[in-house]
Design brief:
The complex is a heterodimer of chains A (386) and B (127).
Chain A: E1 6-7, H1 18-24, H2 40-60, E2 67-70, H3 73-88, E3 93-97, H4 102-113, E4 117-121, H5 131-137, E5 142-146, H6 160-169, E6 173-177, E7 196-200, E8 211-215, H7 241-256, H8 258-277, E9 282-284, E10 295-300, H9 305-314, E11 317-318, E12 320-321, H10 324-327, H11 334-338, H12 343-347, E13 349-353, H13 360-380
Parallel strand pairs in A: 1-11, 3-4, 3-5, 5-6, 6-7
Antiparallel strand pairs in A: 2-8, 7-8, 9-10, 10-13, 12-13
Helix pairs in contact in A: 1-7, 2-7, 3-4, 8-13, 9-13
Chain B: H1 4-11, E1 24-29, E2 36-44, E3 47-56, H2 59-72, H3 77-82, H4 85-91, H5 97-102, H6 106-118
Antiparallel strand pairs in B: 1-2, 2-3
Classes of the chains: A alpha/beta (386), B alpha+beta (127).
């Protein structure tokens, strides 16, 4: 089999669709106006921004006035959590999960350092939050839940509808970091009791550096920045117009093909999981069914993730790992630790995340290469005995 | 992030495996990041005549293990004791800064083997 170049790291980022690039370009060229300007050029650009807002709202089942453009998922999370804490004005209680992205975890830790109480809910060995535990953690001063829609490492989906019901019953704000879910699975904010939702364009074949925050009508936070009236003062600063246009088109296109893509990727995912688990001493991380259609996360025992990544990279395959060496810290991923993996097993984890461009041939190639790379490294391992 | 030399040693590691008749065995690991290296030495007249290794770790850990085994062959024990982790990294043409403290353990494993040998603990029973 000849060498191929395969990108299977779509949970890190995705290539921008050609149609999206094309739609953005005029806003770097002739349509360079500032949407806040009074003149015709400004008004034309303003119209494009508002059309993008409508498109984005439509794709999520929201109202245009509930969509705020931001710089991405991290900023949306910060605006929500820090903004809600600021609005509250006195110490309170936040419930989140122990497997959130650092863009939520670190904000919560900082809020804790500032005097708020934060409960980091444990998860089961699939990575799911237990709604009864969530309910039991509520105290009279609980003002916010922040539970991610789908985990970025292991792909596990959280019971958003049930969490939303608990939030409504107790009149607690509910934020979900849906960066990995949006564009992968349908979402209808009319039927979910979610007050805040964060999304990021580059996860669904849109540009980097642009995201959005859905904030339900009536929900309020205190803005973190001042300096202008843009995005109804929630996110002041001249709008990233090309990004906004790109985000809205990428989202519209992703949602239009969501069912087709889901079926196709789920079939590839199932084939990959089956093929990878045929390698001895390999385990699947995350839930077998309640997971993102594009996520495969496995641990190969006795070998280390960064070495596996390097071995795969030399064979043309791009993936990622939750091992310490690849994360830039000394600890393995907090997600893999939270689902109960011991350190060596967590160190040997690899995430393959599929995207639009992946084909059956990619998966066939991958299933040829991975056993070879794993076997080669295991022969060097002091703990492996064939 | 890795230079070609590191990638080359990672791709084609030298002296992989165990020595069934090793005169000394050494081990070193970082409990935290999980990297572990085991080194096997064949010693004759205070000189290292053969060497093998097994390593659990990232690309840098494997490459530095491999490089060290090339550096020590034919060296006296005193000379081998002088080799530092930095020497191994230098011989590889450098490692990314983060890797210098966590994955660059090969010289320590070597020193451990020699210390074991000198203490007379390193000998394994040959059946």
């Amino acid at each position: 089999m000849s060498k191929r170049n395969i990108y299977m790291d779509h949970s890190a980022t995705t290539p921008v669709r050609e149609e999206v690039v094309e739609a953005m370009l005029p806003f770097y060229r002739e349509l360079y106006g500032n949407p806040s300007s009074v003149h015709a050029l400004g008004r034309t650009v303003r119209r494009a921004v508002e059309e993008a807002r409508e498109k984005t709202a439509l794709a999520l089942g929201a109202e245009p006035t509930e969509i705020y453009f931001t710089a991405g998922g991290t900023e949306s999370n910060n605006i929500t959590l820090r903004g809600a804490a600021k609005k509250r004005g006195k110490p309170g209680h936040i419930i989140t999960s122990s497997i959130e992205h650092h863009a939520v975890l670190d904000v919560c830790s900082e809020l804790a350092a500032e005097g708020h109480r934060v409960t980091f809910l444990p998860v089961d060995h699939y990575g799911r939050v237990n709604v009864n535990q969530l309910q039991a953690a509520i105290t009279p001063d609980t003002f916010m839940f922040s539970i991610m829609a789908a985990n970025n490492e292991i792909g596990t989906l959280q019971p958003l509808a049930e969490i939303g019901e608990v939030a409504r019953e107790h009149q607690i704000l509910f934020h979900t970091d849906a960066v990995q879910l949006v564009g992968q699975l349908p979402i209808d904010l009319k039927s979910l009791n979610v007050d805040f939702l964060s999304l990021s364009a580059h996860k669904f074949n849109g540009p980097k550096g642009i995201g959005a925050l859905y904030m339900r009508k009536g929900a309020k936070v205190t803005p973190l920045y001042c300096g202008g009236g843009q995005e109804r003062k929630l996110r002041p600063g001249t709008e990233n117009v090309p990004g906004i246009v790109g985000l809205s088109l990428a989202l519209e296109l992703a949602v239009a093909e969501i069912e087709e893509k889901r079926k196709r990727l789920e079939a590839l995912r199932t084939k990959m999981i089956k093929g990878l688990l045929a390698i001895s001493e390999t385990i699947l991380n995350g839930h077998p069914e309640e997971r993102l259609p594009n996520n495969v996360n496995v641990s190969f025992k006795h070998i280390e993730g960064e070495a596996i990544l390097l071995g795969l990279d030399l064979e043309g395959i791009a993936a990622s790992s939750g091992s310490a060496c690849s994360s830039g810290s000394l600890d393995p991923s907090h997600v893999l630790s939270a689902i109960g993996l011991d350190h060596p097993t967590a160190h040997g984890s690899i995430r393959f995340s599929l995207g639009r461009g992946n084909t059956k041939e990619d998966v066939d190639y991958l299933l040829q290469v991975v056993p070879r790379v794993v076997d080669k490294l295991r022969r060097i391992s002091p703990t492996y005995h064939a | 992030m890795y230079n070609e030399r590191v990638v080359e040693h990672f791709s084609n590691p030298r002296n992989v495996g165990e020595l069934p008749d090793a005169d000394a065995i050494g081990e070193n690991g970082s409990f935290k990041c999980g990297d572990t290296m085991k080194i096997y030495l064949k010693i004759k007249d205070d000189r290292i005549v053969d060497v093998r290794f097994l390593t659990f770790g990232c690309g840098a850990a494997i490459a530095s293990s491999s490089m060290l085994t090339e550096m020590v062959k034919g060296k006296t024990l005193d000379e081998a004791m002088e080799i530092t982790n930095q020497d191994v990294a230098d011989e590889l043409g450098g490692l990314p800064p983060l890797k210098l403290h966590c994955s660059n353990l090969a010289a320590d494993a070597l020193h451990n083997a020699i210390e074991n040998y000198r203490k007379g603990k390193g000998k394994i029973e040959t059946a």
